[in-house]
Amino acid sequence: MSSNWASSPSGAVMKDKEKSLGEKEKDILRRYKMASHFEIPSGKGLFGQLQWVAFTYVCFIAYGHPDMKQLWAALRLEEEGDDSGWKEFVCGMTDRLHNVQVVGGLLLATSALFLTTVPPSPATIDYTHHGSYICIVSAFGLLIGSIICAVAAVLMLSQASAFQLRTSSQVWYRNRTCVYGTTIALAGPTFSAAPATILLAFGVHSKLNILNCFLTHGP
């Protein structure tokens, strides 16, 4: 790992415990230069712009921020003996993952209901056709994966300390490829739940015959 993980530069001031967390993070970011692979891509050229969009989007889904400054500051604060930034980071991450678990669980129950029951009124809505079943089964599988990934991520974050994450960063955040891989893994539950929702909607509504129902049974 680069020297960015080394101890504080000479002449760095001691952290002020009276500062707010936001002020502490700003002070850390001013005193410690982020590793190059933690920074947002420059966005130069077409490929650079695509990298910038992909990086900011994945970071926003995974961390709730369009960059990795909060994670970097939390790790460096913990190195100086202040774990408030890490606790705040973990709290935000677990809250988002718990929300994904709740939504995923509701959608999973809904998809299981459609897979194991017959439509009450096939003339109005019929989700037993081949195409509908493929969409619903695909959504069911994606939702199971989303919930499993979310639970695993919550367990990992709740048990890991900032020190453990920082020491293992030589593997997780060693270079740009590892940063992308780790961030995508943390964003995986959301990435799975989003297309599952779309597939479930298509599976249920692909055979809607509401217009025909109104034309046939209307006044």
Automatic annotation (TrEMBL):
Membrane-spanning ranges: 102-119, 131-157, 178-202
Query: Where is there biased composition of kind Polar residues?
Result: 1-10
Q: Does the keyword Transmembrane helix apply?
A: yes
- What keywords are annotated for this sequence in UniProt? Membrane, Transmembrane, Transmembrane helix
Q: Which organism is this entry from?
A: Mycena sanguinolenta
Upper taxonomic lineage: Eukaryota, Fungi, Dikarya, Basidiomycota, Agaricomycotina
Protein name per UniProt: Uncharacterized protein
Q: Please tell me whether the keyword Transmembrane is annotated for this protein.
A: yes
Region named Disordered: 1-20
